[in-house]
Amino acid sequence: MNDAAANEPGKQLSRRMSLVALNPIIAVMNRARALRAAGTRVCDFSVGEPDFDTPGHVQDAAIAAIRRGDTRYTATDGTIALKEAIQAKFRRENRLEYRVDQVTAAAGAKQVIYNAFQATLDPGDEVIIPAPYWTSYPDVVRLGGGRPVIVPCDRASGYRLSPTALEQAITPRTKWLVLNSPSNPTGAVHSSDELRALADVLERHPQVLVLSDDIYEHLVYDGQAFTSIAQVAPSLHPRVLTVNGVSKTYAMTGWRIGYAGGPTPLIRAMAAIQSQATSNPCSISQAAAVAALLGPQELVAERRADFERRRDVMVEGLRHAPGLVFDVPQGAFYVYVDCSALIGRRTPEGTTIVDDTALANYLLEHAHVATVQGAGFGFSPAIRLAYATAEADIRHGCAAIVAACNALH
Ligand SMILES: Cc1ncc(COP(=O)(O)O)c(C=O)c1O
After folding, report:
1. Which atom of ligand 1 is nearest to the CA of 246?
2. Cβ of 135 less than 6 Å from ligand 1
3. What is the pLDDT of residues 256-284, one digit of tens each?
4. Does any ligand 1 atom lie closer than 6 A to the CB of residue 79?
């Protein structure tokens, strides 16, 4: 290669770049945006973010923080005020006790998870990730030098990890188990008995840390209760990182505040990683998160009821879609739909639906509904539909999907 070729921008990227893919959800969002820009009405079931406004008292707290001059660097992983608010939240809602030095805050739960894997993984360390999984877990593990060990959990098992599957996946190199209940992308919720059964396995393997991603904690339906593994199994408390954030609960995705409770040495190491990445989460967002966590909580139950109603609208709207099979999800704001029966069918334009990516493309182009293919979540053939959008859009989009499925032959 001559010097000029070697210096082309694309050739200068690190080998690490081969470990990460462009988030498939962002790819879908970009294509939906392009269609919309061309004047098409697109129902967007791809994005996982509440469409509500951030509560007024939280907005006010942020404005007050700006006026007060909370506009400088803060302590690396959160102000004392925020850490105490997080501590109070864990005590109030999860009956989990953390000292302030066992609590960390970052620019979103995503950065918390990134910090945790950067701080703990050595080459060859394994991280057990049940599939379908949130798209970021495997990439963040790889970026940390670890090896994702994907454990498929099928529809028959309610997309939930069984103790047997967990036991079989554990090796001497296992560093972490990732749990995410309620789950993105399936909405599956682990009951406290199921978590207890997983804890029984973990108690036999003291080297395994547990990352409990509880970001959808407040979106659990049908009267079911949320539980977190550290609460169910106090013996595991010293090796669980309980991750949460304000994004989904308080409609604050753009504010970028996530947090966690865990063992002090891990929390300290995560703060060290963060100190060389972002220095600290945004000072104004931290003040807003304090208001969210300590302020009135009535809105949380109201939003849950809204999402439960939307879930029912989507489930009803998809019930008669030929070839789409699913169970009613118990939490989060996603329906994970098995589309095996549609693979091999032909579109009116004569294209074959060869896989779930082809189906998602067809639904976007033919029905103008944006969904995400199961391939992005490590479990195919399926599509994920988010119902974090207005009921009218859900009705319209589902009717368009039913018509598009009917048009396949
Ligand atoms: C399962 C799961 N964990 C973590 C996150 C990240 O949330 P945050 O906005 O706090 O980074 C998301 C966001 O979509 C998610 O679905």
Report:
1. 10
2. no
3. 999 999 999 999 999 999 999 999 999 99
4. no
Cβ 109 under 6 angstroms from ligand 1: yes
β pairing state of 240-245 and 209-213: parallel
CATH 3.10.129.10 fits 56-294, yes or no: no
> How much is the pLDDT for 124?
95
The residue ranges of every structural domain in the chain are: 3-52+299-406, 56-294
Is residue 45 predicted with pLDDT exceeding 70? Answer: yes
Give 111-133 pLDDT, tens digit per residue.
999 999 999 999 999 999 999 99
Q: Is the pLDDT of residue 3 over 60?
A: no
For 71-121, where are the E strands, in sequence order?
A: 103-106
Say how many Å lie between the CA of residue 406 and the centre of ligand 1: 34
| CATH code, 3-52+299-406 | 3.90.1150.10
- Of 384, 378, 377, 381, give the one whose Cα is nearest residue 401: 384
Band the pLDDT of 1: cuts 50, 70, 90. very low
- For 182: left if phi > 0, alpha if psi spans -120 to 50, otherwise beta; the answer is beta
Question: Do the first three CATH levels of 3-52+299-406 and 56-294 match, i.e. the same topology?
Answer: no
